[in-house]
């Protein structure tokens, strides 16, 4: 069994859910045009991944095999609805901006993937940790994309103007294709560094 | 309030296929899109399955939403209810197809289990709810989105067949290059915006 | 007890669903008043913003909204703010966008000589294209714009029309259809406000 430190390294870098496994990008790329939306959205993902991992791990001996998938889905949906209710009550503006994408956390393949691959066969605390770090790995990549898109598309970082007023915003950064380009470039950079590490090791 | 909000079904249909393609402009259904588009015959099967399931589930979820959840004031449970109804529909379709035609099952049925976790399906149901579509609009939107997804995956698998053999930096090969290709496709699809003023 | 038996499977599934739904409805009902208040504050903020009143924070919004009088004429609800002259009137609207309804508030002066402001409450237009109707530069065009020939003309796409006397605004680049729809909404709403106030456009 791997140590917490190894799990972290694996989930944040060598086995990062996004650029190694290309998982779970559906629900979140659409909200990467503003950093604040991405931050809240990915925090939601971290919370749901961690808690559903913990719950699945705690209940693993109780869940009948036949309904395993549907029970896991129920657990995930349960936490997503909690996130939705909390956002509605405490962050109404962000809740409106995220719209249907909060609900789409349910179908984020990372969460289901971690529940199946890790929480099913590991103790609760370690599963919780695995969920947190997987979510963080995901958050890191998406925040990078959101940073570039917001900076070049609006000239702001987290809503604060940072570029000189003469700056001409890049319209393409606000539109969907830029998210694909940036993700492609991030995967490219990530893999280049990884290949170098592999060559020297 | 719906008097003015009626969208032209024709433009809704074409817009959901092209300019607001569920995959290229809303990023939905990416996971299976990237994995399956390596192979064009699987892409075709999956695209067909997505189209069928999208049309059926959007209609069923609309009925559930408007005749069960809203009257009972349980709209906050919609995520659970939608995903369970999608899982049920997929399971049922799989059984029906299996009994009706073996050939169809081999072409289409084997992709059905992949679909429950396809975000495009849940996504369309959620968009249908948030945009307050009527039943007819929901069905058109579901069908259009499915066809758009199908079109996008077929095009991408054709492009990938070519790019597989081209020489690129090893780090860019595979997912990296695919993402950039999808980016160009998204630009092209959005470029149709001006043409679709069919109202 | 056999965990794979049919009665256990069914019982377990029912029990867990029941538990989840119970907890969720509890969470929903405890936050419901807060969600309701958020909705009310959001609505008031939009109306105030269209009327040209700057506010920040829920308390200040509710405070400022006490100055606004809700009146009904010819079945149309208007919000009146006294400005010492003709008064300013705001009307909430729901119009048809490209994708779904566009909800917002349009405010005009009592003699319908000028618009006072526009606020978009909710819309589901394409992000980065039609969705840009919520951006400041677009709404700012409607701030104290002279109404020429009873309408607001949506001209060719541009970066925002700063001339307040020509009665026209710039459309959004790449979002011709959303811009056209906004033009239709303005026309309909101006006619409605005119008939409610009994003023010639």
UniProtKB/TrEMBL annotation, chain B:
Keyword Translocase among record annotations: yes
GO cellular component: endomembrane system; plasma membrane
Keywords: Membrane, Translocase, Transmembrane, Transmembrane helix, Transport, Ubiquinone
Location relative to the cell: Endomembrane system
Membrane topology: Multi-pass membrane protein
Transmembrane spans: 12-36, 48-69, 75-93, 105-128, 134-156, 177-198
Pfam family membership, one: Rnf-Nqr
Keyword Cell membrane set for record: no
Matches recorded under InterPro entries: NqrDE/RnfAE (IPR003667), NqrDE/RnfAE_oxidrdctase (IPR050133)
Chief localization: membrane
Protein name in the entry: NADH:ubiquinone reductase (Na(+)-transporting) subunit E
Naturally occurring in which organism (per UniProt): Alkalispirochaeta sphaeroplastigenens
């Amino acid at each position: 069994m791997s140590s917490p430190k190894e799990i972290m390294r694996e989930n944040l870098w060598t086995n990062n859910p996004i650029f190694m496994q290309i998982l779970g990008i559906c629900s979140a790329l659409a909200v990467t045009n503003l950093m604040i939306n991405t931050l809240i959205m990915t925090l939601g993902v971290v919370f749901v991944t961690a808690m559903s991992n913990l719950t699945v791990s705690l209940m693993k001996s109780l869940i009948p095999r036949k309904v395993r998938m549907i029970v896991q889905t129920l657990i995930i949906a349960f936490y997503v609805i909690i996130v939705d209710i909390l956002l509605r009550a405490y962050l109404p503006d962000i809740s409106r901006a995220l719209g249907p994408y909060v609900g789409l956390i349910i179908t984020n393949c990372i969460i289901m993937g971690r529940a199946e691959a890790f929480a099913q066969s590991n103790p609760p605390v370690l599963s919780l940790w695995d969920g947190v770090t997987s979510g963080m790995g995901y958050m890191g990549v998406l925040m990078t994309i959101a940073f570039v898109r917001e900076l070049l598309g609006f000239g702001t970082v987290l809503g604060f103007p940072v570029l000189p007023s003469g700056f001409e915003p890049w319209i393409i950064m606000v539109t969907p294709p830029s998210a694909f380009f940036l993700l492609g470039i991030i995967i490219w950079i990530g893999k280049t560094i990884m290949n170098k590490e592999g060559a020297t090791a | 309030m719906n008097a003015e909000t009626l969208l032209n079904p024709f433009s809704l249909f074409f817009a959901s296929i092209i300019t607001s393609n569920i995959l290229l402009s809303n990023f939905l259904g990416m996971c299976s899109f990237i994995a399956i588009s390596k192979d064009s015959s699987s892409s075709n099967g999956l695209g067909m399955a997505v189209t069928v399931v999208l049309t059926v589930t959007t209609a069923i979820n609309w009925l559930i939403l408007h005749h069960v959840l809203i009257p009972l004031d349980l709209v906050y449970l919609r995520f659970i209810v939608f995903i369970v109804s999608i899982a049920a529909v997929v399971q049922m379709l799989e059984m029906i197809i299996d009994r009706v035609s073996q050939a169809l099952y081999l072409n289409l049925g084997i992709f059905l289990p992949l679909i429950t976790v396809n975000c495009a399906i849940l996504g369309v149901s959620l968009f249908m709810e948030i945009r307050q579509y009527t039943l007819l609009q929901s069905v058109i939107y579901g069908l259009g989105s499915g066809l758009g997804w199908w079109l996008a995956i077929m095009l991408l698998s054709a492009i990938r067949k070519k790019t597989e053999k081209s020489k690129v930096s090893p780090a860019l090969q595979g997912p990296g290059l695919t993402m950039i290709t999808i980016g160009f496709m998204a630009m092209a699809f959005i470029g149709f915006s001006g043409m679709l003023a069919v109202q | 007890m056999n965990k794979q038996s049919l009665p256990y499977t069914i019982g377990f599934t029912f029990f867990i669903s029941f538990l989840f739904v119970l907890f969720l409805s509890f969470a929903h009902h405890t936050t419901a008043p807060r969600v309701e208040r958020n909705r009310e504050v959001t609505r008031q903020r939009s109306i105030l913003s269209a009327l040209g009143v700057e506010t920040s924070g829920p308390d200040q919004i509710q405070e400022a909204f006490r100055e606004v009088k809700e009146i009904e004429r010819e079945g149309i609800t208007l919000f009146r703010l006294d400005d010492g002259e003709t008064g300013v009137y705001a009307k909430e609207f729901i119009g048809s966008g490209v994708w779904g309804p566009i909800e917002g508030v349009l405010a005009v002066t009592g003699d319908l000589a000028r618009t006072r402001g526009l606020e978009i409450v909710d819309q589901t237009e394409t992000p980065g294209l039609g969705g840009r109707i919520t951006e400041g530069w677009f709404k700012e065009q409607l701030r104290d714009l002279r109404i020429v020939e009873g309408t607001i003309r949506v001209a060719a796409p541009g970066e925002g029309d700063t001339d307040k006397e020509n009665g026209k605004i710039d459309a959004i680049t790449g979002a011709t259809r959303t811009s056209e729809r906004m033009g239709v909404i303005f026309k309909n709403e101006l006619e409605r406000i005119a008939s409610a106030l009994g003023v010639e456009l």
